[in-house]
């Protein structure tokens, strides 16, 4: 089990990005959360096995929403918490 903290830079707000990432995470059975930040980035934490998280990162890089444009991502590893039992959008 791994947990990753990701900050996504680019055109990622107001384009359905969070909902699209949530759909991918649910499909991959990844738990965690995603939210918009005031600086225009999107922040998320995701927890699952390394294959699930690698796949999630690949989907995010592609821009799961057709209107999103991901410039780059800052990814760091964290200790798994196993607190969440789903992936949710935080407002």
Brief account:
By secondary structure, the chain is an alpha+beta fold.
Topology:
Layout: E1 2-11, H1 17-28, E2 31-36, E3 42-48, H2 50-62, E4 69-78, E5 87-89
Parallel strand pairs: 2-5
Antiparallel strand pairs: 1-3, 1-4, 2-3
- End-to-end separation in angstroms reads 26 Å
How are helices and strands ordered from N to C? EHEEHEE
Binned strand content: 35-45%
Count of helical regions: 2
Low-confidence stretches: none
What is the CA-atom radius of gyration, in angstroms? 12 Å
| Overall 3D shape | globular
SSE class: alpha+beta
Mean pLDDT value:
96
Give a description of the structure.
By secondary structure, the protein is of the alpha+beta class. 27% of the residues lie in helices and 40% in strands. The protein has 2 helices and 5 strands. Strands 4-1-3-2-5 form a 5-stranded mixed sheet, covered by helices on one side. The protein is globular. The N and C termini lie far apart (26 Å). The model has no long low-confidence stretch (mean pLDDT 96).
Short key terms for the protein model shown above:
single chain; alpha+beta; 91 residues; five-stranded mixed beta sheet
């Amino acid at each position: 089990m791994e947990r990753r903290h990701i900050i996504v830079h680019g055109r990622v707000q107001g384009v359905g990005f969070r909902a699209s990432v949530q759909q991918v995470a649910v499909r991959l059975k990844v738990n965690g959360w995603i939210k918009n930040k005031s600086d225009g980035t999107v922040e998320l934490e995701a927890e699952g096995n390394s294959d699930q998280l690698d796949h999630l990162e690949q989907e995010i890089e592609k821009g799961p929403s057709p209107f999103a444009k991901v410039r780059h991502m800052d990814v760091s590893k964290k200790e798994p918490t196993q607190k969440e039992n789903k992936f949710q959008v935080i407002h």
